[in-house]
């Protein structure tokens, strides 16, 4: 089997594709997998570090705030279409699998026109624009949530699978990550991050929290700022005379975030669909801060899936400001039994068979055609 994976740069798109690729290689070691991504994106490093080849195309997302800037975006899309056709002709895939974003749509469309089987996966409750546009070119649509089915016109195409999560999250408890990260016994570990790009509201609230941690509290913080904010955050911490290390650990980005999930008692993050799936599989309590800058407010609806079970607390950007996040973290950190209960409830919401369902569907069609 030869498979092309088409994914845009954000972790929410690239990691589900990697989870499926991981499953394919596990169950079909002879399979050949090629990723297609946009030039100058962080996803290129993630893919190559995972051991997969990646080809790059000239494509960018549309600018919804300044339509004039979309003239150059459209030119790139034309150039990207030619590049996609060449990559497909050279690689000769049996299947193209897309996980949304502006790379996915053009690749799925060209593959469909060339008679290649195509699949897309939607991670959110409310589908993104790219997948809604790619729907008519896909043979099957894999959806993480049952609620997403109603947003697609061709409901008979949709298979509810959950979000594919990498095995490192599924098998999290097999390694003592607290020992690996040299965390003292008895510490309550708080992991704070705003996604691969970072989130200013979360970063600001995290700084407030860090400055309020009493010396007598046994709290360790792992704070992942996002690359674009790291130096600004580090400078603010320096002015506050807070050192990076010991109880406060500040990182710009990590490809091994599962280690910090494994060590954490409580996770504070945006509520992208993949992050929620990783939190659930990991069985961790969480404070979820939905991004207000997403289509259809889908991060709120994602977060509600865990919050309704009692597994998470939802707070918005305004609520976490001015010490609001700090107060909620301290409240939960002082109640370890509640944290454990929330984690167990999160675990009960997890699906670990998503990648297997996708693999079985793709390979069942392969066997039908053989």
Q: Summarize this, please?
A:
With 370 residues, the protein is α/β, with parallel strands linked by helices.
CATH class of the largest domain: Alpha Beta
> Which of globular, elongated, flat, extended, rod-shaped describes the shape?
elongated
The overall average pLDDT, rounded, is 88
- Taken as a percent bin, the fraction of beta residues is 15-25%
User: What's the number of domains?
Assistant: 2
Report on the structure:
This protein is an alpha/beta fold and 370 residues long. It folds into two domains: 2-164 and 352-369, 3-Layer(aba) Sandwich (Rossmann fold); 169-348, 3-Layer(aba) Sandwich (Rossmann fold). The chain is 44% helix and 16% strand. The chain has helices spanning 11-27, 42-49, 70-91, 104-113, 129-134, 167-170, 177-180, 200-212, 230-239, 257-263, 273-282, 298-307, 317-320, 324-333, 336-348, 354-369; strands at 2-6, 32-38, 53-57, 95-98, 117-122, 140-143, 158-160, 188-193, 219-224, 248-251, 266-269, 285-288, 312-314. A seven-stranded parallel beta sheet has the order 3-2-1-4-5-6-7, sandwiched between helices. It has a six-stranded parallel beta sheet with strand order 10-9-8-11-12-13, sandwiched between helices. The radius of gyration is 21 Å and the shape is elongated. It starts with a strand and ends with a helix. Mean pLDDT is 88; it is low at 66-76.
């Amino acid at each position: 089997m030869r498979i092309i994976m088409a994914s845009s740069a954000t972790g929410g798109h690239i990691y589900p594709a990697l989870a499926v690729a991981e499953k394919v290689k596990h169950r079909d070691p002879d399979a050949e997998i090629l990723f297609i991504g946009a030039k100058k994106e962080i996803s290129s490093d993630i893919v190559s570090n995972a051991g997969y080849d990646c080809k790059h195309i000239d494509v960018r997302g549309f600018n919804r705030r300044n339509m004039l800037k979309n003239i150059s975006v459209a030119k790139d899309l034309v150039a990207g279409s030619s590049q996609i056709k060449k990559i497909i002709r050279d690689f000769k895939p049996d299947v193209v699998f897309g996980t949304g974003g502006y790379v996915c749509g053009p690749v799925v469309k060209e593959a469909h026109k060339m008679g290649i089987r195509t699949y897309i996966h939607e991670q959110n409750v409310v589908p993104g624009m790219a997948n809604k546009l790619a729907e008519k070119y896909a043979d099957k649509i894999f959806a993480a949530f049952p609620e997403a089915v109603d947003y697609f016109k061709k409901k008979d195409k949709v298979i509810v699978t959950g979000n594919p999560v990498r095995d490192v999250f599924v098998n999290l408890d097999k390694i003592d990550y607290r020992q690996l990260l040299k965390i003292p016994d008895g510490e309550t570990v708080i992991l704070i991050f705003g996604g691969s790009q970072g989130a200013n509201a979360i970063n600001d609230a995290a700084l407030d929290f860090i400055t309020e941690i009493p010396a007598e509290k046994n709290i360790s913080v792992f704070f992942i700022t996002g690359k674009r904010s790291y130096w600004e955050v580090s400078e603010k911490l320096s002015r506050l005379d807070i050192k990076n290390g010991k109880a406060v650990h500040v990182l710009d980005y990590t490809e091994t975030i599962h280690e910090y999930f494994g060590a954490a008692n409580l996770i504070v993050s945006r509520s992208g669909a993949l992050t929620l799936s990783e939190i659930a599989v990991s069985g961790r309590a969480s404070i979820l801060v939905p991004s207000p800058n997403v289509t259809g407010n889908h991060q709120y609806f994602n977060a509600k899936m865990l919050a309704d079970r009692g597994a998470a607390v939802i707070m918005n950007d305004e609520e976490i400001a001015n010490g609001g996040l700090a107060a909620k973290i301290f409240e939960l950190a002082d109640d370890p039994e509640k944290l454990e209960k929330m984690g167990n409830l999160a675990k009960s919401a997890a699906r670990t068979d998503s990648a297997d369902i996708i693999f079985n569907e793709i390979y069942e069609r392969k066997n039908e055609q053989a």
